[in-house]
Design brief:
Organism: Mycobacterium gastri
Structural class: alpha+beta
Radius of gyration: 23 Å
Largest sheet: 4 strands, antiparallel
InterPro entries: DUF6459 (IPR045596)
CATH class of one domain: Alpha Beta
Oligomer: single chain
Number of helices: 2
Shape: globular
CATH topology of one domain: Nuclear Transport Factor 2, Chain: A
Pfam family, one: DUF6459
Protein name: Alanine, arginine and proline rich protein
Strand content: 25-35%
Distance between the termini: 47 Å
């Protein structure tokens, strides 16, 4: 056995774009696990388990602008997913998103709509940016069929007319 150095052929460029291997299998090709012969330890419920008073998420120490941003973001991301699934018209996003983002959501809608089920917002977390409470980064997940996908955005408080309102200025849908 001989070892020789790897030499690029002279007709190939030194840099090339190589496609990434698809690492997720198609959703329908994986067989399901068989049912266990043992009975479940507790009955399954569609509702999440009740939390005790000490386990409730706390909003103490969170400023009022960040509470408003969280409520706004939850509603805005739900509407974005509904527009992508074509359950809501895109005109309803115009007051929530920056103008360039509305066009991006519409292009995603054309590529994704009707495939693999309906998108449902699963979890959202908000983190203030800086100390002025005028911007926040949001990250979360949504479920489409059996898969969980990531979603993230940045919201900023903008002044419009006599008062301020929240606006999604950056959006990433995974």
């Amino acid at each position: 056995m001989s070892i020789s150095p790897i030499v690029d052929p002279p007709h190939r460029p030194t840099f090339a774009v190589v496609p990434v291997v698809e690492y997720e299998p198609p959703t329908g090709t994986i067989p399901r696990c068989r049912q266990s012969a043992h009975p479940p330890l507790r009955p399954r419920s569609l509702r999440p388990p009740r939390r005790s008073r000490s386990e409730q998420p706390t909003t103490e120490g969170v400023s009022e602008p960040m509470r408003q941003a969280a409520v706004f973001t939850d509603a805005a991301l739900r509407r974005v997913l509904e527009v992508i699934d074509r359950r809501r018209p895109a005109t309803q996003l115009r007051s929530l998103l920056a103008p360039n983002l509305v066009d991006a959501v519409l292009s995603v809608s054309e590529a994704v709509a009707g495939r693999h089920g309906t998108a449902v917002l699963h979890r959202v977390r908000l983190q203030p940016v800086g100390s002025s409470d005028t911007a926040a980064e949001v990250f979360g997940s949504y479920r489409r069929g059996d898969r969980i996908h990531a979603i993230a955005c940045r919201v900023e408080r903008v002044t419009a007319g006599g008062g301020g309102r929240w606006l999604v200025v950056a959006l990433h849908i995974g």
